[in-house]
Structure formats: structure tokens, C-alpha cells
Design brief:
315 residues; alpha/beta; seven-stranded parallel β-sheet; 14 helices
Length: 315
């Protein structure tokens, strides 16, 4: 199909065209760049929500109930569910799609499972581009539901307007969570499985650590208890999301966040483009020859500098 036809179909919310475009984006095939270029002027409608936290916290269950609630507001929802990729086989279970299966019957909900493909940030490298497709297709809310976070796995905060961190009473030492960067990225904290022992103590610990945290732009994060598998307290989560969005808009912070997000994306794209152009067959051979030598005559720093200088001359 001609990419102009795909673009036109996406703008008409055609689900098949959306699926084709995201597949091309994931595989970097077809006219995926032309599609993204053509869709770009249509972006800006969707509010992007990130849901992250350790495995087993109940992120998929919360996302399912949250999507249901959002649909009662006559809003459409796109869900990008990201599962970790096996470092051995490259495969992923993509089980989130199974847990949210009942939502697929709702034409106002679009679910796409993606594999992280080794992305350290827990967010598939192409997830933000997939979100752009859903944004252009007219979805009002896009939810990223992503793999657990750690010290280097914080890029969900760079992709979302509102970031929610989901924890459970068995989450362990809250100070260790602080070291991992969890407390820095969250706009809203959800303590799920609140019916389990230790939940009240965990909530107090979280609130204490948040009290020590410098409010980002003046926003004071709250800890919301939920029991997602029963669908309890989901309405409070949605109300807090709406409250956070209104706060960002009132303080002119929403556009600031989105500009910062665009800046980071541009830098990533530039690095990717430079690396793609850099590794010509001749430079690949140069590297291979260097590594085969038992004793390298020059340092890797000098070799890297020489190769970059050669790239600059070629350009």
C-alpha cells in the first residue's frame, strides 16, 4: 500500500492501517519514516500516561481498569504494552495483551504489545513513535505500560506527560527504591494490593520519602492505595491524573515537558543517524582488523578519534 494511503487511513482511525504502520516502524521497513513525517503535524491531541513499576505490581490489571474508566468519559484509549525481551532468544512473552483481551472488543480501545528489544530504559525504542501513530489517529489518551524500572530504566518519564509508579507492600526497602530513581520520576504513586499485610506501613514510608523530595515544578506527589484486581480505587487514580494535567496546564508546564521530550528525541535521532552513517563496510573492516591484532599499536581512544575525523572529512 502506498504510504500516502496509509497516512490517510490512519487519520481516519483505520485500525488495519495503524497496525501496518506500527509494524513498519518496529521493523524499520517500508516507508515508515515518510509515514512519521506526514503524521507529525497532526500530533498533540493525545495525553500520554506512563505506568511503570516492578514485575508483578499489577500494572496490566490497573491499565485494564483505567482504560475501562476512561471509556466511560467518552474518550478513546490507545495502550502500548511493553514486555522485556529475552537476551538469549530475542523473544518476548507479550502477555499483557492476553490480560487485557476483553478490551479488544471495544472499538474505542487500541492495544499494541511491543518487545523492549534490549532497550535499557524499559521502553521500547519505537514505543514513542507508535504513540505518535495513535495520537495522529485521534486517540485521546495513550497509556504506556512498561517493564519494571531500575537505576538506568527511567526513560518512561521522558515519554509521558504523567508518570505513575506502581508499587506493592512487598516492595522491600523504600530507601533502596529511592536509590533506584523511582521517587524522582513519579508524578503519581500507586500502592497496589493494599489488602495485603504491611500496606499501611509501606504507604507511610512512601509518604515520608516523598515529603523529603523537592516538588517538581511545585507538584506534590501523592500515594494512592488500590486493589486493582478488584477494580477498587481506580476512580481516584483517574481523578489524580486529571488533576495533574490541569496543574501542568495552569503552570504552563505541559508544553515545557513536551518541548524537553522533543529535544531528547531529536538528540537520540541524531545519534542514531550518525551511527548509521558511520559504520560503513570500510570502517567495520578497520575495527575488525584492529580487534584481530594481538598487540594494538594505538589506543582505542586514538583509533576512535581518527575514525570520527575521517567521517567528518567524508561529509
Amino acid at each position: 500500500m502506498d504510504y500516502n494511503k496509509i497516512v490517510k487511513a490512519i487519520l481516519n482511525s483505520d485500525r488495519i492501517a495503524i497496525a501496518k504502520a506500527i509494524t513498519q516502524i518496529e521493523d524499520e521497513t517500508g516507508a515508515y519514516r515518510e509515514i512519521l513525517d506526514a503524521l507529525y503535524p497532526k500530533l498533540g491531541n493525545a495525553y500520554r500516561i506512563g505506568v511503570t513499576g516492578p514485575p508483578g505490581a499489577g500494572k496490566s490489571t490497573l491499565t485494564k481498569h483505567l482504560a475501562r474508566l476512561i471509556r466511560t468519559q467518552n474518550l478513546s484509549v490507545g495502550i502500548i504494552a511493553i514486555d522485556p525481551t529475552s537476551p538469549y532468544t530475542g523473544g518476548a512473552v507479550l502477555g499483557d495483551r492476553l490480560r487485557m483481551g476483553e478490551l479488544t472488543l471495544d472499538r474505542g480501545v487500541y492495544i499494541r504489545s511491543m518487545a523492549s528489544r534490549g532497550s535499557l530504559g524499559g521502553l521500547a525504542a519505537t514505543a514513542t513513535q507508535a504513540a505518535d501513530v495513535l495520537d495522529a489517529a485521534g486517540y485521546d489518551v495513550v497509556i504506556y505500560e512498561t517493564v519494571g524500572v531500575g537505576q538506568v530504566e527511567l526513560d518512561i518519564a521522558d515519554a509521558a506527560d504523567t508518570t505513575m509508579v506502581m508499587l506493592v507492600p512487598e516492595g522491600g526497602d523504600i530507601i533502596q527504591g529511592l536509590k533506584a530513581g523511582l521517587m524522582e520520576i513519579g508524578d503519581i504513586f500507586i500502592l497496589n494490593k493494599y489488602d495485603r499485610p504491611g500496606a499501611e506501613r509501606m504507604q507511610k514510608d512512601l509518604e515520608y520519602v516523598l515529603h523529603l523530595k523537592e516538588p517538581a515544578g511545585g507538584w506534590e506527589s501523592r500515594v494512592l492505595p488500590t486493589i486493582a484486581n478488584r477494580g477498587e480505587k481506580i476512580d481516584a487514580v483517574w481523578q489524580e491524573i486529571v488533576h495533574h494535567r490541569e496543574f501542568l496546564q495552569a503552570q504552563n508546564l505541559l508544553q515545557t515537558r513536551r518541548r524537553a521530550r522533543l529535544e531528547k528525541r531529536l538528540k537520540v535521532l541524531i545519534r542514531t543517524e550518525i551511527e548509521h552513517r558511520f559504520w560503513t563496510p570500510s570502517r567495520e573492516k578497520m575495527l575488525s582488523d584492529y580487534l584481530k591484532k594481538e598487540q594494538q599499536n594505538i589506543s582505542p581512544y586514538l583509533l576512535a578519534s581518527q575514525m570520527v575525523e575521517e567521517l567528518m572529512r567524508d561529509s
